[in-house]
Each structure stands twice: as C-alpha cells, then as structure tokens.
C-alpha cells in the first residue's frame, strides 16, 4: 500500500466514523471540508472504498427508499450506495489514531491526523505535535545551511523563493509551539486561537501590518548599531 492510499483510507474511516455517507458526499468532504488533500477523483476513491469493504471495515447499504430504488432500476441507474463503518472498522481506525510513527509527521499525513485530533487522545496528540515540530526544525536547519552555501550563486528571485519557504516553515513551528503549550496547559484550542488572533491584531496595529521578516545575516537599517 502506498503512503498516499494509506492516508486516504485513514481519512475515509475517520469521516465515516462521524456518520455514514455515500461516495459523492465523501469525495466532497475529502476535497473541500476536510481541507487535507488535493482533488480526488472517483477513480481514486471507489477502489479505496472497495478495499475497505473487502477488509470488513465498511459495509455497503442502499441509501434509497424502495420507490427511489425502483425508479433508478427502471432508468438504468445504479441505486445510491451508502457506506457505513463496521465495529471492526471502528477498532481499526482507533488503532490508526494511536500510531505516532515517523509517517505521522510528514506533510499530508500530519494534516490528515490533525483533522481528526478531536477524536484523538491528548497524549497521542502531544507525541504527533512534538514529532512534527522536530521534523520541521530539522528541515529548517537544512534549508538555512543550503541557503548559506548557495546564497552568492542565486539570483534575487530564487533567493526570495527560498526565504519564502523558510518563513513558511518558521510560521508553522511557531504555530506548533502554541498548540503544544495549549495541550500541556489543558487549554481548549478555540480559546488559544482567539488569544493568538487578538495578539496578532494588536501587533498588526502597532506596526501598520504584518511583521516584516528580515534576513538575520544582513544589518537592519533601523538598528542604530548597524554600520
């Protein structure tokens, strides 16, 4: 099984744990509401559903009334199928939720795991968050080292692109730090997000916009000590 198909199966099981759904609704949740994946086609989703059914983790049920089913048959259409999580599927999903291996720290897999943090125990959430932060700190260190080696050979646009990538990673590390602090303090994530938003608004008001990122290797013109 590929890593991406494993993420898809995890997300499908998690969504169906909330409520039974038909294929169209599942695809919509995966592509929009969940906000985790790139667009999925039915050609990708339905083989995944068939695998989950074959493993005994899902069952297929008719989601139509007898009248609707008869109308679909007369029109030559297939009756609507609703997918429901089985007891075995629920147990399997809970096993997946408890896993905190290195794959859980990677970009797409972490996003899928985070989408179901509401169903995940606090100790597992902490391990996933700390693992993700550690992975990003390693990535950031490599990016800084690479930029230091190649700075003189890069044109301004490539250099700016690399800085943009570093700033994105730095922002996520700060976000993870806030989440980890909230988890340790036992605070609700909604209240923490509200506090962070209020603080950001105050900062924006003082500076007239978002904080300006500066290359730490270059002197700041506003610094009196710069020469």
Offer a few descriptive terms.
single chain, mainly alpha, Arc Repressor Mutant, subunit A, 2 domains, three-stranded antiparallel β-sheet, 9 helices, 3 strands, 65% helix, disordered C terminus
Write the layout of secondary structure elements.
Blueprint: H1 3-18, E1 21-22, H2 23-33, H3 42-54, E2 58-62, H4 66-74, E3 81-85, H5 87-98, H6 107-115, H7 122-150, H8 156-185, H9 189-207
Antiparallel strand pairs: 1-3, 2-3
Question: Can you put this structure into words, describing what you see?
Answer:
With about 230 residues, this protein is mainly α. The chain has 2 domains: about 110 residues, Arc Repressor Mutant, subunit A (Orthogonal Bundle), CATH 1.10.10.10; about 70 residues. It is globular and about 65 Å long. The relative contact order is 0.08. The C terminus is likely disordered. It holds the Pfam family PadR. InterPro entries: Metal_resp_DNA-bind_regulator, Tscrpt_reg_PadR_N, WH-like_DNA-bd_sf, WH_DNA-bd_sf. This is PadR family transcriptional regulator. It comes from Streptomyces albiflavescens.
